Amino acid sequence: MDYAFDAPPVDRELLDFAVRLAGRAGQLSARRFFSDDWHSRLKEDGTEVTEIDVAVEELMRDELSRRMPDDGIFGEEAGSTGGLSGRRWIIDPINGTTYFTHRVPLFSNDLAYEDEHGPAIGVINMPLSQQMIAAGRGLGCWVLPGPDPDLPSGRRAQVTERTNLGGARTLMHNPAGWPEELLCALHRRVLLMPSTGMIAALVTGRVDAGVIAGPPMGYEDVAPMPVIVTEAGGRVTDLDGASVLEGDMSVLITNGRLHDEFLQLVNGLPHSRDYRALDDGE
């Protein structure tokens, strides 16, 4: 499912609603971040979850069910709820739970919306840095500051205009899971830096590109990306050039001008390291 450039703009009121809902999720998660009354546990897939993940998703689900009762919902913690409209909301209540549990203020509250034309709304809220990135199809991408963000307070987001791949500022996510071939190929050509908020950094022009490899992302992780990146003037695919929503859940985001050259650089390279080859004794 790709971003449809010829689709009609999404309703501005719907984007306003998504911004407010993500803001409420951020306020709840920020309050609980500084408290000591929660615990984490491992899910069946080995990833962490906290009571706050569940509480934030419940808050968002309850409001979506009340305001949009015919829409479907997919959330990281509670799975899918069917709808009648053919439209769907995707929730990642706390993207970066490991950061959250280790008291590192780099988590976000993510929300996406898909209609009959495809990706329509993407919101990434970073409550502890008091910055939200919100985009609607045909409405642009916006950076919204403060503890209670809204669209009128925002400024337009825009990617860089860099056209030279050599030395391009490139964020890397989860490099511990990268294969040596991918890491070396990129290291030889671009300036690799650790990610502390890849999407926000790209659409505000602080970097030129970002790469996510290693263990695959979940659908809820990538769902906001097509609208946000495209509306800011960039491009997003997986590392093979396929739709990021239908590919192998690796991610390449760029300012658009560098995208094809990045794809050529990583063409044919593995996207995840072979953990079976590791020897704990070495």
From TrEMBL:
Top-level taxon of origin: Bacteria
Q: Which Pfam families match?
A: Inositol_P
Which InterPro entries does its entry note? Inositol_monophosphatase-like
- Output this protein's name: Inositol monophosphatase
Q: Which organism is it from?
A: Streptomyces cynarae
